[in-house]
C-alpha cells in the first residue's frame, strides 16, 4: 500500500493540476507547443552535428520519389528528378571557366519561376550562396542591395534587362559578370544564360564541391522590405533554413499537401514555403505573381491544400466580388502573418473552414511565435514554460526617444498586462542572431545589452506587442510606425483600421508629421477612395471623433489614386513623411481637421501658414 503522505501529495498534485486546467483551458495546447519546439530544436541540433542540410534532404527525396511532382507552374509539371537535373545544369554554368568559386555569393534578380529554384539549388550544390534581390527595386536601391551582398555575379530575368542596364556602368566598375536569362543577349557586357544551361551536363556534381559548407554557412541573403529606408540583407544560414522548415511542420503541413506560393520567392514567407516542400517531400504550386481574381481558380487547378499568406493578401482576397464557388476548393490550411481580426473572421465565413495559423517572426530574428489555439487576431500565447525554454520578454518602450525604458539600476522593465511593449528575445548559442551583411552599424542596433542583468544580450525585434489578461499575445505595431502626439503614443495600424471602416475609404497609410512649435508628431493619413464613392469630409470627421481619442485623430488627410507599397504589400512611409502637409509642394487634395467647425476642411495655403506659424493651434 502507498504511504499516507504520498497519497496526500498525489491528491494535492491532482487538485493543483485541475485548478490549472480550469484556470487555463489551453493548458494541454501550451505544453504540446513547447514540447514540439523542443523536439524541433533537438532535431535541428542533430542535423547541425551531422552537417545534414536541406540540400541533402532534397537529394534523398530525389532518390526516394524521382517522379513525384515537385513544382507546378503554369501548365508545366517538374518532378523531383527534373529539378535535380536542371539544378545540376545551372550549377555547371556557374562552374564554367572558374567563374564562381566555393563560398561565393551570386545575386538573383528574377520573378517567381522555377528557374529561381534551380539556380538556388545549383548554387548550394557547388558550395555557394545566393542573394535574393527584390525585382521591384531600381537604380540606387538596386545597386545598393547588390553591393551589400558582396556578389561578383548577377543573374537577371530577361524582362528585367532594362533595370540591369540602368546600373550596368556601376556594375562593370566592380568587375561584375552579368547573366541574362535568355538564349541571346542584346546588350554588350552581358552574357546569356539559358543557351549555356541547355548545353550543360545534367550529371550529378561531386559532393566535394560543397565540402567546406557547414550548417552555420550562409544559404541566402534575404532583404528587409525597406519601409523605413534602404533594404538590409539578413543572413539566412543553413541551420536557419531547418528551423524555418520545422516551423511549417509544427503548423500542420504534411507530405501529402500541395502548397501554393504566389508571394515573391525573394521574400521570407515565399522562400519558406519552398524550403518546407523540400523538408516535407510534398508538392509546390508556384505562381509568378499574386492575383486576387485568379487565386481560387489556381487553387482548384492545382488541388492546393495549403496556402502561404501575408495580411494584405488576405484582405485583397476578401475584397474580390463574391462568387457562388467561393468555398469550392481543397484548401484546409493557411500559414502566414499579419492578418487583421476582421479580415480573419470574414475570410473563414466566406471561403469556408480554412484553418488559419498566424506566425510571428522576422527574417533576421532568433525567435518566433505560432498561434496554435486559433484565437482570432492573436500571434501566440505567453506561457511560463515557453518563456523558460525560449527566453523572451515584452518590455516598456519610450516611443518618443525610440529606446526601452530602464529603471534606476539601468535595467529594462517588463510591460504590464494589456500594455504595448517592445518584444525582445535572448541571443545565445541556441538562439543566435547572425545580423546583416556588411552592415555592422545596423546589426548592432538590433542588439540590446543589459536587459535584465548586466552583460546579457537580447534581440530587438522592433515590434510592439501586447499580452492580454488571458495570456494571448497580439501584434500592435512596428516601433518605427508609432509616433507620439499630445503626450500619448499613437499606433498607426490601429488608426488605419478605424479609418478604413468608412465606406468611402479603401486604404489608409497613417504616419506622423512634424508641425513647427509642437512636440512630437501630428497624425496624418494618406488615403485612397473606394470605387464609385465620393469623399464626405463631414462623415469622416464624425467617424474619427466617434472612434478615436483626440490625440489619435489624423490632423491632416491626403487623397491619392493609389498608395505606394513594397512588393510584400507594406505601405511606404518615408517619402510621405518628408512631403508632410504643405499644399505648395503637392497637387493631391489635402484636408485639415477643423475641430471648431466639426469638419475636415480643404487645407489651403492660408490654413497651412496659420498652422505652421502657430496662429491656428492644433
Automatic annotation (TrEMBL):
It is a multi-pass membrane protein. GO terms for cellular component: endoplasmic reticulum membrane; plasma membrane. Gene3D superfamilies: 3.30.300.30, N-terminal domain of ligase-like. It is found in: Cell membrane. Its main location: membrane. PROSITE patterns: AMP_BINDING (PS00455). SUPFAM superfamilies: Acetyl-CoA synthetase-like. It comes from the Eukaryota. Pfam families: AMP-binding (PF00501), AMP-binding_C (PF13193). Residues 494-570 form the AMP-binding enzyme C-terminal domain. InterPro entries: AMP-bd_C, AMP-bd_C_sf, AMP-binding_CS, AMP-dep_synth/lig_dom, ANL_N_sf. GO terms for biological process: long-chain fatty acid import into cell. Its EC number is 6.2.1.3. It is an enzyme of class 6 (ligase). The chain crosses the membrane at residues 6-22, 117-137. Belongs to the ATP-dependent AMP-binding enzyme family. PANTHER family: LONG-CHAIN FATTY ACID TRANSPORT PROTEIN, LONG-CHAIN FATTY ACID TRANSPORT PROTEIN 2. This is long-chain-fatty-acid--CoA ligase. It comes from Sander lucioperca. The gene is LOC116038357.
Amino acid at each position: 500500500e502507498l504511504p499516507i503522505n504520498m497519497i496526500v501529495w498525489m491528491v494535492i498534485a491532482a487538485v493543483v493540476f485541475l485548478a490549472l486546467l480550469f484556470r487555463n483551458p489551453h493548458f494541454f495546447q501550451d505544453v504540446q507547443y513547447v514540447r514540439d519546439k523542443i523536439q524541433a530544436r533537438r532535431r535541428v541540433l542533430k542535423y547541425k552535428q551531422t552537417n545534414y542540410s536541406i540540400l541533402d534532404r532534397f537529394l534523398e527525396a530525389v532518390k526516394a520519389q524521382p517522379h513525384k511532382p515537385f513544382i507546378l507552374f503554369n501548365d508545366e509539371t517538374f518532378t523531383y528528378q527534373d529539378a535535380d537535373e536542371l539544378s545540376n545544369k545551372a550549377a555547371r554554368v556557374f562552374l564554367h571557366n572558374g567563374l564562381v568559386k566555393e563560398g561565393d555569393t551570386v545575386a538573383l534578380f528574377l520573378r517567381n519561376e522555377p528557374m529561381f529554384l534551380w539556380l538556388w539549388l545549383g548554387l548550394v550544390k557547388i558550395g555557394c550562396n545566393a542573394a535574393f534581390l527584390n525585382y521591384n527595386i531600381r537604380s540606387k536601391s538596386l545597386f545598393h542591395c547588390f553591393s551589400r551582398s558582396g556578389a561578383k555575379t548577377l543573374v537577371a530575368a530577361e524582362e528585367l534587362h532594362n533595370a540591369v542596364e540602368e546600373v550596368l556602368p556601376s556594375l562593370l566598375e566592380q568587375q561584375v559578370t552579368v547573366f541574362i536569362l535568355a538564349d541571346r543577349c542584346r546588350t554588350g557586357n552581358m552574357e546569356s544564360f539559358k543557351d549555356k544551361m541547355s548545353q550543360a551536363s545534367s550529371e550529378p556534381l561531386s559532393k566535394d564541391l560543397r565540402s567546406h559548407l557547414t550548417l552555420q554557412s550562409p544559404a541566402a541573403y534575404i532583404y528587409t522590405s525597406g519601409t523605413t529606408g534602404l533594404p538590409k540583407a539578413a543572413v539566412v544560414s543553413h541551420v536557419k533554413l531547418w528551423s524555418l522548415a520545422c516551423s511549417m511542420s509544427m503548423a500542420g503541413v504534411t507530405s501529402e499537401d500541395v502548397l501554393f506560393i504566389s508571394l515573391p520567392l525573394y521574400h521570407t514567407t515565399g522562400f519558406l514555403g519552398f524550403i518546407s516542400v523540400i523538408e516535407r517531400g510534398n508538392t509546390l504550386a508556384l505562381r509568378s505573381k499574386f492575383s486576387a481574381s485568379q487565386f481560387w481558380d489556381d487553387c482548384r487547378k492545382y488541388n492546393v491544400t495549403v496556402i502561404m499568406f501575408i495580411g494584405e493578401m488576405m484582405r485583397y482576397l476578401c475584397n474580390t466580388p463574391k462568387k457562388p464557388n467561393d468555398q469550392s476548393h481543397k484548401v484546409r490550411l493557411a500559414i502566414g502573418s499579419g492578418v487583421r481580426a476582421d479580415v480573419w473572421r470574414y475570410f473563414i465565413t466566406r471561403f469556408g473552414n480554412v484553418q488559419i495559423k498566424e506566425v510571428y517572426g522576422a527574417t533576421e530574428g532568433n525567435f518566433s511565435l505560432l498561434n496554435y489555439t486559433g484565437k482570432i487576431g492573436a500571434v501566440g500565447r505567453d506561457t511560463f514554460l515557453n518563456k523558460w525554454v525560449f527566453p523572451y520578454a515584452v518590455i516598456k518602450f519610450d516611443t518618443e526617444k525610440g529606446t526601452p525604458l530602464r529603471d534606476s539600476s539601468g535595467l529594462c522593465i517588463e510591460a504590464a498586462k494589456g500594455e504595448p511593449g517592445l518584444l525582445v528575445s535572448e541571443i545565445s548559442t541556441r538562439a543566435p542572431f547572425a545580423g546583416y551583411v556588411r552592415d555592422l552599424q545596423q546589426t548592432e542596433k538590433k542588439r540590446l545589452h543589459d536587459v535584465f542583468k548586466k552583460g546579457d544580450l537580447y534581440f530587438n525585434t522592433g515590434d510592439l506587442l501586447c499580452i492580454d489578461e488571458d495570456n494571448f499575445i497580439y501584434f500592435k505595431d512596428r516601433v518605427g510606425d508609432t509616433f507620439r502626439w499630445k503626450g500619448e503614443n499613437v499606433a498607426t495600424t490601429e488608426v488605419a483600421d478605424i479609418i478604413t471602416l468608412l465606406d468611402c475609404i479603401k486604404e489608409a497609410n497613417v504616419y506622423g508629421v512634424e508641425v513647427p512649435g509642437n512636440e512630437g508628431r501630428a497624425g496624418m493619413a494618406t488615403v485612397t477612395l473606394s470605387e464609385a464613392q465620393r469623399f464626405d469630409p463631414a462623415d469622416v470627421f464624425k467617424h474619427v471623433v466617434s472612434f478615436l481619442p483626440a490625440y489619435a485623430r489624423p490632423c491632416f488627410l491626403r487623397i491619392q489614386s493609389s498608395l505606394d507599397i513594397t512588393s510584400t504589400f507594406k505601405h511606404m512611409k518615408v517619402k510621405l513623411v518628408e512631403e508632410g502637409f504643405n499644399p505648395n509642394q503637392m497637387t493631391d487634395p489635402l484636408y485639415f481637421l477643423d475641430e471648431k467647425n466639426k469638419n475636415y476642411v480643404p487645407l489651403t495655403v492660408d490654413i497651412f501658414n496659420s498652422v505652421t506659424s502657430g496662429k491656428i493651434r492644433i
